[in-house]
Task: structure prediction
Amino acid sequence: MSEVPTYHLVCRDCPTELVVETAARAEQRATDHESITGHRLDFKRID
Ligand SMILES: [Zn+2]
Result:
């Protein structure tokens, strides 16, 4: 029932999973994780 889109981030290279509420935040978190670890994350919108 939330009006805010939710994004699920999953790291390809470690067990990290995150759920965030905006695309901007999803990109921010993915970029942070990649810059720290060199890992790659996939994220997809959850309705
Ligand atoms: Zn990772």
User: Anything to note?
Assistant: The mean pLDDT is 92. The pocket of zinc ion is lined by residues 11, 13-14, 16, 33, 37, 39 (CB under 6 Å).
